Amino acid sequence: MGYDFSIIFEKFPIFLPAALETLKIAAAAIIVGVIVGLFIAFGRLSKIKIIYYLSTAYVTIIRGTPIILQLFIVYFGLANVIKLDPYPSAIIAFGAHNAAYIAEIFRGAILSIDKGQMEAARSIGMTNFLAMRRVVLPQAFKRAVPNLGNQFIIAVKDSSLASTIAVRELLLKSQQLGSSNFRFMEYLLIAGIYYLIITGILSIFVNKIEKRLAVNER
Amino acid sequence: MAKRSDNKMLRVSSINKSFGDNQVLKDIDFTVYEGEVVVVIGPSGSGKSTLLRCINFLEKSESGNIYFQEELVENKEVAINKMRQSVGMVFQHFYLFPHMTVLQNIIEGPTQVKKMKKQEAIPFAEELLDKVGLLDKKDFYPAMLSGGQKQRVAIARALAMKPKLMLFDEPTSALDPELVGDVLTVMNKLAKEGMTMLVVTHEMGFAKEVADRIIFMDEGRIVEEGNPDSFFIKPENPRVKEFLSCII
After folding, report:
1. In terms of DSSP bridges, do strands B196-200 and B165-169 run parallel, antiparallel, or are they unpaired?
2. Are A126 and B158 in contact (CB < 8 Å)?
3. Order of all β-strands in the sheet with B22-33
4. What is the pLDDT of residues B141-170, one digit of tens each?
5. Which residue of A has its CA nearest to B79?
């Protein structure tokens, strides 16, 4: 039957709602991931043993198991206890997943800041909390930006796994349309182009932030 | 010469400190009086920097006490933070906050710790910058400054808290030789204004000229203590003689 690439142009616009779904899931996963990740990072840096062990266990478990398994546990596994819709299931699973990776990004960035910065801040009478907030975290955040950008791009692509629990995002859309007339390639390419546009814009955005934050460095 | 007052600014009492098996401070005892400039010298590894860091609790000593203005400083966050507001510290590697301009670095302590209003903090910061000769650099970021300029900003940042005592931890050791002079000039000026200072340094010229008293440390102990004249001209301890003959 061959390929009919004109379909790509013709059907491109009807993928827009699915692209928005992808964006929504990825954005929610990133926001949850950043907030929870920051707490986990502090937990991993905590001198309080129980907090340290709990957060370390979290990171170990999440990083050591497949993201699709985590998604299925939330959607199918928890169904006996609490029945979640596909959409919140995806956000919970992807948010929790990203939190583990983002925690490690933040932790690494905080540890990369010279101990002298903390000491200098403490030596003018700052509390540990104030020194963290005013001196260490602003510098650490700056160093985390490239890695965060990378993780955000991964989050966008990983959101495609939500197709397995019937979230109507890009990949599911292309599969559904493809199976209606067996033009899989054309529809998959449309989804691919949308992903490239989203991740492309995201990396331009991250680069811009990186440049802007670098103004006071030589 | 005798500008020493009878008011004790700082008293260090039987401080002991170890890193693992290595005991770096052994029963250190001494007093710094108000208005006095005390210079600590000695070979590297003798515990000078650790001593300074124990005084403002950046290192926790295993035993012994610190008295600031005749009051015991308890090993508790609140007490330590309160003391640190009155004890300025200048580090070998400056540790300016790189994400803040020179002016922001200086007003950070007063505005964040002392809750001073910006309108009050800024004129005072500018006054201090003028004093260290860097008013024209106030909107620069630390990365745009030379080492000597960074250290002078660091001194101004410490002074912004209106400290009663200033600790200097090898303030010129990380500087290019031609930049050392500018920093020493500022320290000299401070000493003349009557600031109480405890300085760890290898600058013997500064020690001779500015110090009221010299403390010589070796292997974690105070080996000799005296005024610069007797110390440099007729040292008694053989370890001091050996050290001085190596560097002068």
Report:
1. parallel
2. no
3. B22-33, B8-19, B63-68, B71-72
4. 999 999 999 999 999 999 999 999 999 999
5. A125
